[in-house]
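DM from R.C. (forwarded with permission)

"hey, sorry to bug you on a friday — could you get me a structure for this? deadline for the figure draft is monday and I only need the backbone to look sensible"
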Amino acid sequence: MSNPVTRQYHELVDTISTAFREGQLKTISAINAGLVFTYWQIGQHIVEYEQKGKAQATYGKQLLKQLSTDLKLKHGKGFSISNLQRFRQFYMQNSNYATVSHNLSWSHHVELLKIDNSTERSFYTQQCIHANWSIRELKRQKDSGLFLRLAASKDREQVLALATQQALVNKPEDVQRDSYVFEFLGLPEKDNYSEKDLENALCHHLEQFLLELGKGFTFVGRQYRITLNNTHYKVDLVFYHRILRCFVLIDLKINDVKHHDIGQMNMYMGYFAAEENIESDNPPIGIILSKDKDELLVEYATYGMDTNLFVQKYQLYLPNEEELRREVEATLMEQSHDE
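My reply, with the result:
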């Protein structure tokens, strides 16, 4: 009997495999959507019962406890008091089910429910949907205060706009923020480390680094070599941004940025614009990541230079969330009163 291993047979195997994988994804998606709707319905039943006035009169705070006891006897441990509280809270925050995203799992919704501020919660919801964040990514961005870090230097309109944006980076200026947080590297703040150590650590944790940079970044290479008049230079890290359609060049500095560092980055950008860009590419972006930043020096050193050149700070520890939160809330409150 002849062996049926032909090109057509391989195509058949690939076609079946693709159909199977797509079917698995659709099934998982359908199960997730079904669970989310079921939990929303449970929350609705609890709230509607309470609103009839019976809950307060009959059980008071004991309602969920009694429900948990009775439902666990019927259906098992999935009806803990904490789960019933989440179902109720989920319905309270999303009384119109049409506004609930079908693209997020129940685990995503549980993490989002932990955010009290509606503007902040909306921001993380949008980013989960459009950047396809996993639960782990969502937790990390929440813990690092991404919304607060982005919002801290913006006015009220911009803060509110963050909650409806579909991507973290839509224009070159969006790469700017108060600071980038590299707590995932595990480098103690006071230890001595070199720029090479920092680069190695970032490349070793590339997934988390890309997440911190924002949506749309793809890694091109490290120590990217360019040659001008027989002199070799190396850009620490090179990325390409799919949304902005441009190269993003990053140089790492563990000390203060000097004026010649800025001039060197400007040269790199000029080289990429002339030698690496293709017709459909936009002008490159240059980012110098530094532990410290002298604002006045940067202002003078970049005078008249390409507006796509940015000097940004990084930190190896999580920001002070309470201070950032107070700053953002003050911005929202102050400008709200002015209106």
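R.C.: lifesaver. The CA atoms of residues 209 and 256 lie 22 Å apart.
me: no worries. The chain has three domains: 7-105, 115-178+319-339, 179-318.
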